[in-house]
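Minutes, methods subgroup
Present: GH (chair), OT, SY

1. OT presented the first of two proteins processed in the latest run. Sequence and structure tokens recorded below as shown on screen.
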Amino acid sequence: MGKDRNNSTKITFCQPAGFVQAKGLVYFVPSKTKGLNSAIHACISLRYEEICRSLHHRLEQVLYEGVEQQSGLYYKVSRKGKLKLHTTEETLVLSSRVHVVVKDRQQPGLLDLWKKLPTVQVDQTEFDITVSFYIQLNIDSRWQLHAESSGHFQWNRKARVSIGLLSLPVSSLIEPELHRQIEAIAQKIDLYLTEELAFTAQVQEVWRFLHTPHRLPTEWPVWLCPFGQSPATLACGPLQLEADQLSWRIQAHSLCRIFVGERPASSAPPPLPAAATLPAGTHQAGLRVEAVVNYGEIEQRLIGMQIHPKGLGSFRIVGAKLHSREGRLHLSLQLKGKVGKLQLQLSAALLPGKQAPWFHLHDVRHRLWSENVLLRSLAYLLHRRIHAYLLHSLEEQLATLQADIKTELNSWAAGRELQPQVYISGQISKIVPRTPVLQKARMFLPFEVEHSLYIELQNL
């Protein structure tokens, strides 16, 4: 889609379990239950590579340096190599190689007796151990991420210090301090995962995106509002551990709307609802799109239109007013031509069709009026010709609008950038119109979209 998608922390909408998986994406999937709101399955993904890189910069290279009080031994514990994050038996494991140096501290201590003998040399010892941190992650009802890590290590070989011809074990002397330092590191890891990853902020970013209108690049001004103006709920699924990332599936229920005309008013989204638990096996989802068409947008497109009824010269629309009453569309037009001015009123029912352009005008009624006596005498002829032309033009406008929406939806199949760092893709096999709802200043054109769409948000 024109950009590197290997960013580490991604907020994505992803296809729910039970469908063919496509990692790192968020799917809208059709509902088989009529009347169901759109169920949007979102996925917040964190790449292991980025978590390790961030922890590498936050954890000190020298983990501990000091003297063990009982023995007087000095030792230094340092990280060696890269951190590695992987999974084992459904558990997240962070591992690191640790280098340990043990020697006498040049002060009176356990080994000083041997130093007084000129023929005896006390050496230091160095060795590596592998430390593994087993991490448990949970989300509470306030969308707070909680981490609990426990560290463990094993000796590859027991640590020993050479004293002359003797080799003395010192592992039991330094193990208690190693355990204390590993526990301190585990607390730092928990703090990073809880605070630095800002999981709650990422959920809030998804919440904000879903409540924000997004302009689509169509001929008509079309705005996508994933949550429209309807209430929404959020539920969180269990942690999912994959080969290169960990993720949580979030399911949101609301009504997806497409507005046509001016940018719909928007305000700050409501507070995040409490995180509900997403039941296992919750696979059903749906996409219902409701196009909200402001009559003012159609009026502006009609004004200035030239009409050429055969044998009657040309007329230009200089005024247009569209509204609805009693379940019908009512259009009043003012036309101006060389032979005079006309006023035309049309009314029609708008019904869903079985094929594009999906919605059609039915039972069209019209009335023509003019102060020009000649035009009034030609009223019948004008009725037929202007009505036929205008009806065709109005249907063309609706068809263009509907074609724009369908073209836009179908264009997502190839993948495209909806806005910076927001990608939309998918595949549409069928668009089924439902009964429109006519209001005084706008109309609602509902569709049920069969197949899948998804939106991917990257590093918002």
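2. SY then presented the second protein from the same run.
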Amino acid sequence: VWGVGQEFVMTNVYEDGSGNREKVPDTLFVVFCNRLVCMAFSGILILLHKRSNTDPGFALASLPAVSNLLASWCQYQSLDYVSFTLQTTVKSAKLVPVVIVSSLRGKKHSLQDYAEVLVIASALVIFGLETEGGKDQRRDHSTEFGVILLMALLCFDSLTPHFQDHLFKSRPDLNAIQATFAMSSVAALAAFLVLGVAGEVRGCVGFVARNPAALLHISVLSLASTLTQFLISHTIKHFGPVVFTLIATTRQAISVCISAALFKHHITALACVAAVLLFGTVIVRAIRPLAHSPHRSLDALQVNRGATAAEALLVNTNMNGGSPTSNLFRSPSSSILGTMVKWSLNWQLFICALGIHVFFCFYAMSQEFISIHTFTGDLFTFPLFLIAVNRTAGAIFALCLLKAQGFSFFSSKMRMTMLPAVPNFLATVPQYQALYHLFFPAQVLMKSLKVIPVMLCGGLLKNRIYSRIDYVEGTVITVLVSFFVWDFQLHKGNLRDGDISKHATGDLVAGSVLMVGYVLMDSLTSNLEDYVYQAVRIDPAQQMFGIEVFSGSFAWGILLFTGELRQAFGFLVNHPSALQFVGLLAFSSALGTYACTVTVRLFGPAVFTLLMVSRQIISLVISVFFFQHRVDWLCCFCLVAVSLLVLSASMRQVSQQMQQQLVRQQQQQALGQQDETEKEKNSIDPNSAGTDAKLPVLRAGAGPRRAM
């Protein structure tokens, strides 16, 4: 109500009985009315509650009162120079300075907090820029004074909640009503003095007398502002400035939506996506505590199976006198995985994310280049041959890793790798084939729709159970990605002119069916890899070698059976320049596959899928620039914001794993201390040795089983 009333009062032209048309003469007069009503309302409440209105702590209210007054004046005055949507966009940027100031005051924030702040700010920037198409052309949106007002608004509005937070911490006995009365009194007095010095009091009173409707509108606006001030004070006192800023950000988006409906502003489809991104991030942040609620989760399953590699190593270390066992890793000094688990989970996540993003971005660029580039007029149309070459390169790379780490090349346990090898092959074939039916950006984004299927497959296989917040994040990501699939593939021919009718019919259906098959099979692949890790102790290089050998054998066999192998070799003989691109594709595929296998081993299929979704989005943005796809830059910016949301979700899951790891470590340490106490007791009391002495043996034997 306050946001809509603000725009209406400041933009409406009032007509008096004589037919004269005029606007509100001074912005500060509206601010003065707001603070005057707020002061009167809070004063009445103080009298009803029999509280003091002359508390010594009122002097501390001068700082938030002045900063709030200046912010309000800049906010109202800016509407004479910029549109409401642009103003709201700039106000959204205060999220970053609010968190930064909060950090400078000593409050700790995680990287996930900063990532979510950037996502929210980016979404509102996109929303404001997209809705700017319906702006009122009578305003000069590029005036320097308007920009200065917006920057001042950003500065003062960021300082106000921290001044209020300091006020409540300095005087904890000061309630929200007293604080509101103090701040509104100081602000009203300051505004009146400025109006008096400027000689605007008589003109403002005359304007209200000539236009009774304006008095009604300002009264409604002031009442809404008063109630807002009470809610703001209560929120900051009990929840802090960051929570208040998040709530205020959501309110800004709602205000813009209502403003667009009432004042006929234009909202595009991308603006709607930005709104979904904003609301989804805020909702996920709000329900994040539910992720730690006591319900059956992955932690319960990992007691007997499925613990992360780092957790398993810690358990083995604690249960075997402080030295890592060789049951899980051959030797931490020679094993890549054994070395990585010594690092913190944040570093492990960073290395895995870096490997997936770098190697698979090269892979995606090579894949698109081969699928669309013509070699002396001929197109390479042998996707199964590329799969076979990639799998062969991956197997050779895995062999080199096994040799370097001292692992055996063949083991009876590697038979288990046939489980993920089959769906891996069945997923790769439709993925390559779909490139000949869909635009590459649409194909890449459709690969990102597997977040929810991965979670569902984990539940069906009973190797992972996910929390409610996991499904909420997955749903938000799926909705956002689905929009871009539709937009890039069909909307207004953004990618290629004249191809919409073709791809809107047969090719679109065929490509979509192929990608649905890919999503289902690839969701099953990562979960089966996780199942193999939980069923047997196997190194990621062994897992990769088994999968690459089995799926590569399938590919070479089909090539020989269909005769496509001879045609593919003939193409390479006739076009030797294609060899370097096939080699680059195979090399990047091998490195990326190993990064994926290690990620699944360390963090499970959900975190791996989130990292892959982020990588696919970044690959799309790179593809737009390198291959000159006709995609609006704002869409790419929104995609980057979605990628930040995905990375934030992966960081949340890793943070939860860190907490689970710490709990397990503490439990194992407590169990070891209990065993030592019982051993000492048995050594002192020989009569109890016949019964109690067996207990430490049973507990010690349970340790390695928990690490499986």
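Chair's summary of item 2: The mean pLDDT is 74.
Next meeting: continue with the remaining queue.
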